[in-house]
Design goal:
mainly alpha; globular; single chain; 1% strand
Length: 344
């Protein structure tokens, strides 16, 4: 029996755990995979030339649409696995979710139309892709802020959520710039290093703000982090996160000299380290929230569908999840390497 009075050996006990894990992995995969292409989109307006913009689009072209599959899977699991939580969460986040969907749709339309548009119309679609990426990133950060604060609707909660949205835009920009450092060469690669530097410390500020706010809103979360021996066992998470930020900063300072010498060694360090920051931040947040879907109000067992329904859906997940992982890995394997000039 768990501390919540649930028998973890029965289907009603372990199935919600499995679906919570699948949902968490789906959202983590989405944040990292769609995060870098949202970041590239949010950087598009900073590019100097049309050729640079074409190369940026080419770097995410084979991946960006498939990356959003993870969002569909995550929200789908929330809907069918935890319908009560789905109603509460999406009801509380109706406006930012609507904004995100409009922004993602705008990105999709702009991505396809820019390749068909005449030269004098292409800047319009580039701007639309940029705005869609910006709004989608900000709305996701706003939703994250609301989740952390338990969907409070006072002014302070809205201000905090808006600031987290602003910081997530720069976190995605850091991820996107790091992706471009790996995927491009020449002046665009050097510009990507500069964009990453400009995004680094606001990303760190967002991680710090979430780290402070999460234990502050709940005594239970505070005790999970700061009681002994948990404090000593969990200390590596913030310590390694801080070390990764230092690694990113040092790498970004050294890379321009290497690139000027034609040396691409270490081009993947900023991206790998940024992914590490996202992984540790996600792990820390998941540890804080588990097993609550709405902090201190609704846990995964209270929100779960019936065991019979979950068991049927479980068989579908066993088939679908490996397929999604397989084609994601295959796409990265096929299209790995430096991006070249975009042509049709």
């Amino acid at each position: 029996m768990s501390e919540f009075g649930v028998d973890l050996t029965s289907p009603s006990g372990w199935l919600p755990l499995v679906f919570a894990l699948v949902m968490a992995l789906s959202m983590l995969a989405y944040v990292i995979l769609d995060g870098y292409d949202l970041g590239v989109g949010a950087l598009l307006d900073s590019a100097d030339t049309l050729d640079h913009k074409d190369t940026m689009i080419a770097s995410i072209g084979p991946f960006w649409d498939a990356n959003e599959t993870w969002l569909v899977l995550g929200v789908g699991v929330l809907l069918v696995g935890f319908p009560m939580a789905h109603g509460v969460i999406l009801g509380a986040l109706y406006l930012p979710v609507a904004l995100m969907l409009v922004a993602l749709s705008l990105r999709g339309v702009a991505f396809d139309f820019r390749v068909k548009a005449k030269a004098h119309h292409r800047p319009l679609w580039d701007k639309a892709f940029y705005i869609g990426s910006l709004l989608a990133s900000w709305s996701q950060g706003f939703m994250l802020g609301q989740l952390i604060l338990g969907f409070n609707h006072d002014t302070a909660a809205y201000v905090f959520s808006a600031l987290i949205g602003f910081c997530l835009v720069f976190a995605y920009r850091l991820l996107g710039a790091s992706w471009l450092i790996m995927k491009t060469e020449g002046l665009l690669q050097l510009n990507a290093v500069r964009w990453a530097k400009n995004s680094l410390w606001l990303t760190a500020a967002g991680v710090l703000a979430i780290s402070i706010a999460t234990p502050w809103v709940s005594q239970r979360i505070f005790d999970k982090w700061f009681s002994f021996p948990n404090l000593l066992m969990l200390l590596p998470i913030p310590a390694v996160t801080l070390a990764l930020f230092v690694v990113i900063g040092r790498s970004l300072s050294r890379l321009p000299t290497r690139f000027a010498q034609g040396n691409q060694y270490g081009a993947g360090v900023p991206f790998a380290s940024t992914v590490g920051v996202f992984l540790l931040s996600f792990y820390g947040l998941a540890y804080s929230l588990f097993p609550w879907l709405v902090i201190d109000k609704l846990n995964i067992w209270q929100a779960a569908s019936s065991p019979e329904a979950l068991l049927v859906i479980f068989y579908g997940v066993v088939v679908v999840l490996p397929v999604i992982i397989g084609y994601t890995v295959f796409a990265f394997r096929v299209f790995w390497g430096k991006s070249t000039h975009l042509s049709y």
